[in-house]
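Annex B. Sample input.
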Amino acid sequence: MDKNFLFSNRTENYLLAVLVFLIFMAGKEPYVTRNGKKGVESIKNMQFPYVYKEHHLKGVPDGVWCFMWSHLYIKLTETFYETFQAGESRNLPADRYDEEFWLSCLKEYYQKLASGECCKYDKNSVLLFPETFRKVKNEEYIKCVNMRHIS
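Annex B, continued. Sample output.
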């Protein structure tokens, strides 16, 4: 068996997606699940644990990652989901985004951050480690009050 492995553009495109994910998710790998497990089965089956639209999978890592994910630029969350989730439009190696797409996407995100558009509805969206989920436009939020258990 040949131990040499040559990278192709397809491999590079996947690794670029992983690198961008690692940067925005503070070193957390795409398929790491709750309790820090790498989830070999999740990797094999390409079961991406993060929420996207109506897809609510189990196993998002404990800690700030669910908050970080909710504050990410929507184009990034969409692209990560399409790339890392089995059966999605960019999941197959031949369909993965290339470096030009990623550069364009990152520049667009930077412009939205610089203009204040990304934090128009929630100032926490510019934080590296937000402590809450992103607030959504036209949604009403109420503060929870501790209540004693009524017996």
